[in-house]
Design brief:
Elements lengths: L1 H16 L2 E4 L1 H15 L11 E6 L5 E6 L3 E5 L4 E14 L2 E12 L2 E11 L7 E6 L4 E5 L9 H4 L32
Antiparallel strand pairs: 1-2, 2-3, 3-5, 4-5, 5-6, 6-7, 7-8, 8-9
Length: about 190
């Protein structure tokens, strides 16, 4: 068992060495929203608070988000309680996040870990969101249940004053953005 844990920690350390890492709640919230937008997932899927660190490894899609403490969130339109751990990890791809760690949902009397979240169809046009668990439980929900209306100013393109942004909180490019307007990346 110790060898597996050591190998896993070593792989994570190597992945994080190649990653774009961001600190602070504002930069990490922006990172999470960009991740969801570019993966084609609803913007309210990760209602995280007090984010301290996030990172993304472009070549593998590995992403992690760290927050100060676990957050329990109720999606009222679904009547579902979801727990977001202090650290959430996964591999982001177009239309899904796989090998998710740190997200659990309440099924009857048990907390069931979510392993994969995938979009079926366009979430903005009434698509569905499929959540799969390690236990083999699969649930399909309307993507609109995870959508949060954006503020009028935020609905337009996000603009960041690069001269004011400190080097520790850069704007980032998470995935292939072919055809989309470029995002500035500070290094």
């Amino acid at each position: 068992m110790a060898l597996v844990a050591d190998d896993d920690a070593e792989l994570k350390a190597k992945a994080k060495a190649k990653a774009e890492v961001y600190y602070g709640d504002e930069a990490c919230q922006l990172c999470a929203q960009l991740l969801l937008r570019e993966a084609g997932l609803p913007n309210g899927l990760l209602p995280l608070e007090d984010l301290t660190e996030c990172g993304y490894v472009q070549e593998t899609g590995y992403v992690w988000l760290k927050q100060g403490r676990r957050v329990d969130h109720v999606f009222r339109s679904l009547g579902r309680l979801v727990s977001y751990g202090a650290e959430i990890t996964g591999y982001a791809e177009k239309g899904r996040i796989r090998k998710v760690k740190g997200i659990k949902t309440r099924e009857l009397m048990l907390w069931v870990p979510v392993e994969e979240i995938a979009a079926l169809g366009d979430p903005a046009a009434g698509g569905k969101l499929v959540c799969k668990s390690v236990a083999g439980i699969t649930r399909t929900f309307p993507a609109s249940a995870f959508h949060v209306p954006e503020k009028a100013a935020a609905a337009e393109e996000v603009k960041v004053d690069c001269a004011r942004a400190p080097p520790a909180t850069p704007v980032l490019v998470l995935m292939d953005r072919s055809g989309a307007p470029p995002v500035v990346k500070n290094n």
